[in-house]
């Protein structure tokens, strides 16, 4: 037997480590295959969607901009009866807007992950995690079709013959 991992969990010497996440989850032959895990489609129930947590950098930037806005507003309000100079207002706006812009960019570049959960053999199991909405939706559609196929049995054919002349009885 040719092992790619030693008993300590580290890659065996001279062998490349397997990828941590398979970038191509698929539905095939009655199975949902994700990375090195296989789930029988007939044993999946209560499929549900969840979104992963927001990126920590995005949330920290947003919190920092709120704190800075409060601090700058307090300083400007207590600046005496004279209105602040234009340069002070521009500088204060920049102090607040830079973290806010970082939060916006982080939200666009690091979206929340898509997660597919189901009850599998009596336990709530996370089946799939994907950053790509397109890939996630494709897997979900394939899984719904495969569950319908499994429920209706092998006689169900969603695609009738593509050759209309062979389907006419003689």
Question: Can you describe what's shown?
Answer:
The protein is an alpha+beta fold and 170 residues long. It is built from 3 helices and 6 strands; from the N terminus they run E-E-E-E-H-H-E-E-H. The protein has a 3-stranded antiparallel β-sheet with strand order 1-2-3, covered by helices on one side. A hairpin with a 2-residue loop joins strand 1 (26-28) and strand 2 (31-34). Helix 1 runs antiparallel to helix 2. The longest helix is centred in the middle third of the chain and has 24 residues, at 86-109. The radius of gyration is 27 Å and the shape is rod-shaped.
Any key phrases for this structure?
alpha+beta, 2 domains, disordered N terminus
Topology:
Blueprint: E1 26-28, E2 31-34, E3 37-40, E4 44-51, H1 56-77, H2 86-109, E5 114-120, E6 123-130, H3 133-152
Number of helices: 3
Per the principal axes of the C-alpha atoms, what is the gross shape?
rod-shaped
Listing every helix as H and every strand as E from the N terminus to the C terminus, the arrangement reads: EEEEHHEEH
What are the segments in which pLDDT stays under 50 over at least 5 consecutive residues? 1-11, 15-22
Q: Tell me the number of strands.
A: 6
Question: What's the end-to-end separation, in Å?
Answer: 57 Å
C-alpha-based Rg, rounded = 27 Å
Overall pLDDT, averaged?
A: 76
The assigned structural class equals alpha+beta
The strand line-up of the biggest sheet is 1-2-3
């Amino acid at each position: 037997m040719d092992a790619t991992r030693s008993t300590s969990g580290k890659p065996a010497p001279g062998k490349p480590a397997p990828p941590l996440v398979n970038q191509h989850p698929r539905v095939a032959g009655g199975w949902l295959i994700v990375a090195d895990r296989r789930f029988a489609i007939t044993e999946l129930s209560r499929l549900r969607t969840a979104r992963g947590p927001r990126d920590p950098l995005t949330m920290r930037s947003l919190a920092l901009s709120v704190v800075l806005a409060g601090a700058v507003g307090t300083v400007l309000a207590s600046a005496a009866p004279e209105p602040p100079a234009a340069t002070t207002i521009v500088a204060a706006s920049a102090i607040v807007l830079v973290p806010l812009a970082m939060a916006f960019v982080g939200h666009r570049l690091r979206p929340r992950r898509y997660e597919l959960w189901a009850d599998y053999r009596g336990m709530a199991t996370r089946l799939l995690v994907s950053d790509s909405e397109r890939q996630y939706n494709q897997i979900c559609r394939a899984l719904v079709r495969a569950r319908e196929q499994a429920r209706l049995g092998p006689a169900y054919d969603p695609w009738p013959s593509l050759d209309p002349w062979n389907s006419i009885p003689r």
